[in-house]
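re the bet — no i am not wrong, look at it urself. input seq straight from the record:
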Amino acid sequence: MLGLGSGVLRVRAGSFAGLFVMISMTVMIAAAAGQIMATALGAPGPGRFATADAVVRADPTVKLGHGDNADKVDVLRSALLPVAALERIEHVPGVREAIGDTAFPLTVIGRAGSPLPTRGDAPADGHGWPSAALTPYRVTVGRLPASPEDIVLDEGLARAGRFRVGDHIHVVTPAGVEMLRLVGVATAARAERERQSAAFLTQSRAWSLSGLSAGFNAIAVRFDPGANGAVVRRRIADAVGGDAQVLDRRHAVAVDAGDPRAPTTGSSSSPSSQAAAGSR
């Protein structure tokens, strides 16, 4: 009898242990699924603007009509901020540094005549060299772009094309096909290398190849240590004027014209708009 009872207890103990393991695994799976969903539904993060305390962009909507019948329509990319806005922001009390960013799609053609593969399921982006400080990128081979014919590629593009400093390469931009001279190879943190492929030119050349006029898609701002963020953002909004939006770091990715994760319409960035409005 005692033997039978102990056998039953052993069976039950084994059942309880199996049940406990099953419940634990279910909880772990549910928690992991919750984290995945939270990541998918949450903000995608600041991306290239991770070190900025605020980012400025033009209003991502256009107004149609007049008076009470007026309506706002989202645009794929907001208008450019004027070049003068950068200097105005630099002189705002509490601003330590302001960096203008120009971003436009750019395709590098390999030696076989085919486009080179890129990271992030999106075309490579061309930038003016000053915006390399945002990530940051640094030149590891060669030098910075100094003339209109110069280009610096990230190491992924240079490796894919088997290019060396001094090579002439063809790129396709909104302004057409150009032949440029590779003068440097740049690298960044691994997360940034995986996110986007990038090429850098002089600022004036980036403006001309973007197919747009001189100006910035965004201006990233870093504050003085201890500065009151809300106060500085309000000052920046006043300095830039118009309907420009001043976003905090949390919503910075909405401003990145070159980030494939960025919202493609103004309405998609309503939390950013609220943040900007709150800074005024």
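see?? The chain is about 30% helix and 25% strand. told u. also Residues 2-41 form the longest helix (40 residues). so pay up
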